[in-house]
Amino acid sequence: MSVPDVIRAEVRDYLWAEADRLYWSTLSAGEKARWYGIWTESEAVGRRLAPFLDPRKIRVYIKDTLLKSYTRERMADVGPVMRLLGLPPEEEAVREFIKPHGRLFADGRLVAWSKAVDWKLTLMTIHERAFTIHGARAYGVALLEAATKHPDESTRAVVNEAARRLSVERLVWID
């Protein structure tokens, strides 16, 4: 028996709201494991899924089916990134990228964003995209969840300098 679409959607929405509240991507593997256990036993999640799943598979279902795409989906939200880079959120991209997320606009501006811990990949990727796409320029990079590994200016200095040397016009840190 499989979980009905309505139940799956309701439980997923609940878990995603909880993940937002907990700042899920900043939690350690141990902390995430603890929350999988809590949710497996909870009324709102485990008991809702119990009629449709083997009890031993509820935890795996939560992890692999309901939360697997959470981080990717949350990172794909371009609105906050656009606003912080001084661009209208509704501006239409001519090309979209993933790994790391990014956009190319008709005027050649490139933007990219990722977790701050992935700054090297993100800066090098926007540099490479600007180098290989005719007429493109590295307009902006947004580094998310910066407070976890880069809480102050001294820890951000090397990243700021790398962005400057790679001709990234705007670099924003999002805590």
Write out key terms for the chains shown.
175 residues, alpha/beta, 8 helices, 47% helix
**Helical residues, percent:** 40-55%
Q: How would you spell out the order of helices and strands?
A: HHHHHHEEEHEHE
- Globally, the shape reads elongated
Strand arrangement across the biggest beta sheet: 1-2-3-4-5
Main beta sheet, described? 5 strands, mixed
Low-confidence stretches: none
Structural class: alpha/beta
Radius of gyration: 19 Å
**Arithmetic mean pLDDT:** 91
> Strand portion, in percent?
15-25%
Compute the separation of the termini in Å.
Answer: 42 Å
Number of helices: 8
Topology, number of strands = 5
Structure overview:
It is built from eight helices and five strands, in the order H-H-H-H-H-H-E-E-E-H-E-H-E. It has 175 residues and is an alpha/beta fold. Strand 1 and strand 2 (101-105) form a beta hairpin. The protein is elongated. The mean pLDDT is 91.
